[in-house]
Amino acid sequence: MNASKRTSLLCPNCRTLVSRSAPVCPSCGMKNPGSIWKDNIFTRGAGGENGILRTILIANIAMFVLSVVIDLRPAALSGSPFNFLSPSNQSLLVLGSTGTIPLLQLHRWWSLIAASYLHGSLLHIVFNMIALHQLGPLIIREYGTNRMIAIYTLSGIGGYLISALFGVRFTIGASAAICGLIGAALYYGKSRGGAYGNAIYSQIGGWALGIFIFGFLVPGINNFGHAGGMLSGALAGYFLGYRDRSQDTFGHKVLSMACIVGTVIVLIWSIINGLFFLLT
């Protein structure tokens, strides 16, 4: 039993049991699956569907609570559903709201990631987390967990970069990243075709249309961020591929872990800024 543990492992790419000394995985063709460069904590995948979606949800809730607590104001308890538990602009800036001013004047490029975990009110975060809960399982099923993480993270960055190019001064919310999931789903449905692909394309297309209609009717919505997120998600879906066309690769795992590590570092820095603001 102990010898088996020492001489075999699960392939970091396809999770097939292989010999640690095997020159190539017989299932997926990965070379030297037992190499320390390929079999380590950073390359074994990002966990299952429920785990990653729950982690994103918890991170968003934790950052929202922190944003309210570090600068609690009577206005945050307003009876208006659009403003209830609304963090102050100062607390959001401290924690990482993004836009032309944080990026170009304050040089806070880390805010491109942090902003996706900040929200302007209780209603804002509830809507976004419901959307994540509905879209996340679809993207994980068709792209896999690793590619979903990459699409989510890169779409948030891309959406906020594009909105900054169009002059949006301050912006927050998970909606750019979530719109990236919509973009990836639209690409998948259009590319796959058939009854299933067309159904996905039609249903998710309705979501996209509804988001833009809502954005033009309600003031303060970052339509450039939404559009940029969808475009980034569609491009990520195209370049990363989906399961029907390509298997999950070692490169997908590395990109996924890079996104996770980068996000963790940024959120830790954001929390440190918030605690420093609270104590001074």
From TrEMBL:
Give me the Gene Ontology terms describing cellular component: membrane
Q: Extract the GO molecular function terms from the UniProt entry.
A: serine-type endopeptidase activity
**Membrane topology (UniProt):** Multi-pass membrane protein
Keywords (alphabetical) are: Hydrolase, Membrane, Protease, Transmembrane, Transmembrane helix
Pfam families cross-referenced by the UniProt entry:
Rhomboid
Question: Which enzyme class?
Answer: hydrolase
Keyword hit for Transmembrane: yes
Transmembrane stretches, start-end: 51-70, 109-132, 144-162, 168-188, 200-218, 224-242, 254-279
Q: Which SUPFAM superfamilies match?
A: Rhomboid-like (SSF144091)
Q: Where in the cell is it found?
A: Membrane
Residue ranges constituting the Peptidase S54 rhomboid domain according to the UniProt record: 107-242
Q: Provide a GO biological process annotation.
A: proteolysis
EC no. given is 3.4.21.105
The Swiss-Prot or TrEMBL record describes its family as follows:
Belongs to the peptidase S54 family.
Q: Which PANTHER family match?
A: PRESENILIN-ASSOCIATED RHOMBOID-LIKE PROTEIN, MITOCHONDRIAL (PTHR43731:SF14), RHOMBOID PROTEASE (PTHR43731)
Name assigned to this protein: Rhomboid protease GluP
Q: To which species is this protein native?
A: Desulfoprunum benzoelyticum
